[in-house]
Amino acid sequence: MNSLRKFIERYQSLSNSDWKMIEHLFKSNSVNKNEFILREGKICRKLYFLEKGLLRYFIDKDGMEVTKFFTIAPYFFTSQVSFNNKTPAKENIQAIEDAIIWEISYEDNNKLLELKSWNQFARKITQEVQFFTEEILEELQSETATDRYIKMLNKQGDLIQRIPQKILASYLGIAPQSLSRIRRKQARS
Amino acid sequence: MNSLRKFIERYQSLSNSDWKMIEHLFKSNSVNKNEFILREGKICRKLYFLEKGLLRYFIDKDGMEVTKFFTIAPYFFTSQVSFNNKTPAKENIQAIEDAIIWEISYEDNNKLLELKSWNQFARKITQEVQFFTEEILEELQSETATDRYIKMLNKQGDLIQRIPQKILASYLGIAPQSLSRIRRKQARS
Fold first, then answer.
1. Which of B68, B123, B131 lies nearest to residue A122, judging by beta carbons?
2. What is the DSSP string of A72-99?
3. ipTM confidence score
4. Lowest CB count within 10 Å: A64, A162, A183, B76, which one?
5. CATH architecture of B3-142
6. The whole model's pTM is what?
7. Short-list A19, A16, A12, CA closest to A112
8. Cβ–Cβ contacts within 10 Å for residue A92, how many?
9. Whole-number pLDDT of residue B1
10. Which residues from B are below 8 Å from A116, CB to CB?
11. B76: helix, coil or strand?
């Protein structure tokens, strides 16, 4: 089965006619490692499905990059506020690996929202994204960078291998040197 | 106009028949200051609308309270993962002020999700909550407690007056004494 349909049907069953409409409105692209899907200050005009690859969201804070979170395929993504309100994005979205990305325009997504199935799917995935964001927030509020690193190592060990050290450090909110120290200490214990 | 209807119509227009159904399924209650709407470990069985008052979400981290965020009336709230998956909540919800709260059960909310208007409303408000959560996450990742306090003071000065010092400190991730110091310094400057 098509990977986009398969992903949607994890959340919401689709009739063949609804799927035909969805398939017709999405287009797929290849994106190279390090390429930007969105730059801060631009309006995000698309809703995306990441079929393959890994992305990061980051902001520039006084010349320092802060990585907000990662999107791991297969998953949907966009710069939500920018996409919904047509305002300049406050964040960058960058591919960390070569990626395959499907996209749909704001207007075409609105057409799909007329379908009950798509509306349900959109609500469910937004809820899940909200849950993930809350989880990261809770960790940041209550755990040290070392605790967060160990948790990631246990829960998402293979993901950690795919993220460059500098980017992982900017997600944990520490200097790359501090991350090296934590890694050495973990490897010893 | 009824405050619940007024709130929903900020996001999504309602036909009179849809409103009748919504009104019929919600019940309103009074909650006293300091009362718990939800305790960690319990299943959150309701979706709520806070008509009046102020709430906080908090977790207990090794005996220390960590305040995740606040809900300011009028707004919708629930413990999302617990409510959707019927799993024990990982957080507490407590009234900081006397409150008026409307509630609807999981089953009745599912009935409402059959309405296109309610489904659209649920999707839009979930998106907004996601946006607020991301904003707090971004601040936590890139700003100091002092910066966050000053920002709150400028954007939500009246809210700060309503939150007890100890709770505000547990939201900023600092000791109450450190918050007192920041406040004295701000008052002088």
1. B123
2. ESSEEE--HHHHHHT-B-SSEEEESS-E
3. 0.85
4. A64
5. Sandwich (2.60)
6. 0.90
7. A19
8. 21
9. 63
10. 116, 119
11. strand
